[in-house]
Amino acid sequence: MKLVPELTYTAQLSPPQVSGPGPYGLRQILAVTGGKVEGERLNGTAGEGGGDWMLVGDDGFARLDVRGQFSTDDGAVIYLNYLGLFELNDAALSAITTGTSSTEYGDNYFVTTPRLECGDPRYAWVNQSVFVGQGRVRPGPTVEFRVFRVEP
Fold it and tell me: How far apart are CA 111 and CA 85, in angstroms?
């Protein structure tokens, strides 16, 4: 297998709405308030209505459940969803609680499995591709992912 860099996805997030604690941990819902996608084949802007239904466990990890969409610069709409794990170590907690600091790729375990879906024939290739992403926290709070397409 080979990982091919495909795009960078950046999302600005609202303050979390906290639900819980519940039976599986602390549920936090963070709305996407803006963002962008940049890559050689894909460029666009995050649409409204997306968010992360994050579940924070007692083990120091957050389970991500993200859904959203973005509009490409040439008029297509691409649905995006991913599951992932976000390690809440000291660097990550500092970045997300202050909103002014950041982490770098690899500072903590922050890995996702994005799935893209599009009905526009120009982007049919996203429907037949497997992606993996690595995240980091930027000031804002903003999350940024570099997303790779898996090739055989």
Answer: 6
Taking the complete model, does pTM exceed 0.90, yes or no?
yes
Q: Determine the 3-state secondary structure of 41 from DSSP.
A: coil
Domains in the chain: boundaries:
2-151
DSSP string, 103-138: --TTSS-EEEEEEEE--SGGGGGGGG--EEEEEEEE
Q: 47-90, pLDDT tens digit by residue?
A: 988 999 999 999 999 999 999 999 999 999 999 999 999 999 99
- List the structure tokens of 95: 């970045």
Confidence of residue 22 (pLDDT cuts 50, 70, 90): confident
Instruction: Quote the CA–CA distance of 98 and 144 in Å, as a whole number.
Output: 17
CB 103 within 8 A of CB 135: no
Topology of domain 2-151, CATH:
Porin (2.40.160)
CA-to-CA dists, residue 64 to 1, 54, 110, angstroms: 25, 5, 10
Q: How confident is the model at residue 42 (pLDDT cuts 50, 70, 90)?
A: very high
- Quote the DSSP letter at residue 24: T
Any idea which residue has 């924070």 for tokens?
56
